[in-house]
Specification:
Layout: H1 2-11, E1 32-34, H2 45-49, E2 55-56, E3 61-63, H3 72-76, E4 82-84, E5 99-100, H4 114-120, E6 124-130, H5 136-143, E7 156-158, E8 167-171, H6 179-188, E9 194-198, H7 200-204, H8 217-221, E10 226-228, H9 235-245
């Protein structure tokens, strides 16, 4: 008992009391910014070093749906045009909003429809599908239920059965072997229902985008409600994205 008390004192207060105004350490890589200045002549170091081809030049653009938030582009840029901030609010409701330009200062989803907010504004149950992921995104989603983030206090919870869910959260690049499982799970969710893509692999295939083992037909046939970029995204990014989308203060 004494040892348990000592450990509890050393840990301090682990709860994130205010997720809406939480600040992450400076070393956390969140929303990137692109400086409003010219690149060196014929320099394409950032594009060459990017492992997922997330960077386009002339002008410089970063596709957060492809980006794995590694620091390589920032490190090799001689003009320091690209810089990763520690801004955790990166959830959007449209794929095109993940294209970051020099004009981009912040991104967030538009509020969901009145129907969605009426149904899910105070209680949202989600079924998570790991579609060939490395378990990085899955670990972050698991953390949402622990004492630190306690997502359940906002009425948002993960459930074991799709029949008890209001939507699905997909992680991983969607491998061919998971095609039927994803479709069966989604069909089992009662209407109205939502789809959330969590992580670069789910959004674009990430580092596996050119693999013959992935099958992303499901995403082409169904409307995606939220895109949450990262490799993996932070739990607070998930919570804040949903609260913004549901119009929660």
């Amino acid at each position: 008992m004494n040892d348990a008390i000592k450990i509890r004192i050393l840990q301090g207060d682990p709860i994130v009391h205010d997720v809406r105004n939480a600040k992450l350490p400076p070393l956390f890589r969140g929303l990137p910014t692109i400086a409003d200045k010219e690149c060196s002549t014929e320099c394409n170091k950032c594009a060459e070093v990017c492992p997922t081809n997330a960077i386009k030049l002339n002008p410089v653009q970063i596709d957060l749906g492809l980006c794995v938030f590694c620091p390589l582009c920032e490190e090799v840029c001689p003009e320091k045009v690209i810089h990763f901030t520690n801004e955790l609010h990166t959830t959007v409701d449209e794929r095109k909003k993940l294209i970051i330009t020099k004009e981009t200062k912040s991104i967030k989803p538009e509020a969901a429809s009145e129907k969605i907010r009426k149904y899910f504004g105070k209680s949202l149950k989600l079924r998570q599908i790991s579609a060939g992921g490395c378990n990085g995104c899955e670990l972050e989603l698991n953390a949402l239920s622990n004492v630190n983030f306690d997502m359940g206090r906002y009425g948002i919870e993960f459930v074991a059965s799709p029949r008890h869910a209001d939507g699905i959260v997909i992680t991983g690049p969607l491998t061919e072997n998971m095609t039927n499982a994803i479709e069966l799970c989604y069909e089992a969710v009662p209407n109205p229902k939502i789809i959330i893509l969590f992580g670069a692999c789910a959004i674009s295939g990430g580092i596996f985008q050119n693999s013959e083992a992935i099958q992303r037909k499901f995403l082409e046939e169904n409307k995606i409600d939220l895109y949450i970029p990262g490799c993996p995204p932070h739990p607070l990014t998930f919570i804040n994205g949903l609260l913004d989308w549901l119009g929660r203060k």
